[in-house]
Here is the input.
Amino acid sequence: MKRGRIISILLTLALLLTTISLAGCGDNDSENGPIKIGVISSQSGALEAWGTDEIRGFKLGIEYATNGTNKVLGRDIELLIEDDTTDAGVGVQKAVKLIEQENVDLLTGIISSGIALGVMEKAAAAKVPYLISSAASDAITGENFNEYTFRVGRSFRQGTMAGGSYISEQGETFYILAPDSVAGESYTNAWKKDIELNGGKVIGVTTPPADATDFTPFLQKVKDAKPDVLVLVIVGASYKAKLPQQIKELGLMDDMVVTADIADIEFLRGLGTVGEGLVGTIIYHYSLFDNDENNFLVRRFEEEYNTVPDLFASAGFTGGIAMIKALEKANSTDSEALVKAFEGLKFNSVKGEYIIRPEDHQTLQPMPVVELIMKDKEYAEPKLVKLVPIENTTPPITAPGRK
Here is the structure.
């Protein structure tokens, strides 16, 4: 009997040790498995070109920051990419899928501010860190702030702070043309503030639909008002291609100064030679910066895609670098550790040094002001007038209770 009891005890201990061992293996598999990053952007719809560039840039940012290994913390990086179709409802659905079904560790992406505002609510509810590279509405790091959302792209206000003083030198009265969208409204409000702070007067605003193809009635309003300066807010395919063409057809460039937050290369092509002499802000142009990060992005983008990177590729690239730096700083995929790591994070990307402000999670960064000049193409290209430093493009903190 005694021997039987001993054998029974030994078998029980063996079973218990096996169970503990298997549980330990499960934990190790989780810790050593891939880090899952959910990427949402527009691969179809009105913002398809920009969304595709953002994803491409993000992949290259990961490559750069991991020295080509695509590993961090000793673990592979797995990108789960979803198309928001440039639709707010779809974007939120894709975020829920990535969070609840795929159990992603982090989220990133989205061009449209309207879509991003919906996604950031879902991410915060699930306590999943969400890094925005492109969507620029001031509300994201302002009135709609949450502790799990960060933005490495500039806000609208940062752009208008950089350009306000230069644009205000072009005249006394201003008219703003912006899309009827969340982004358009936010950008219009930012321009109003900085034009008026610099002594200018906004005498009118016109807001064509975000998917407009005929801008003639809106441009005629501007022409009839006779402002000194027309300020353009460029969002979406038709704003880049058809708007410049119709501005030229109506002769607005002869009647007033036309300035803009210069969008992308397609917009420059649309302006053609008529754009020569235009002064404005710009998020990014591949020719403006000579540093390790930008040189890598330009070289690898040309190798992979047989073209140069544009502004949203640079935004995605910067997001990729920031995400790896935060993971390294946190030394974990724990969401609370990542929040602390993102707050105050300093890193370098295509424009120089970037700093994620702890108070509202807006990234501070230098902002270029450029003049369009003729070089060796059939359209005017940007020449750097001034790289406005961080201290002159730091927007006020408007996140509730975060000052």
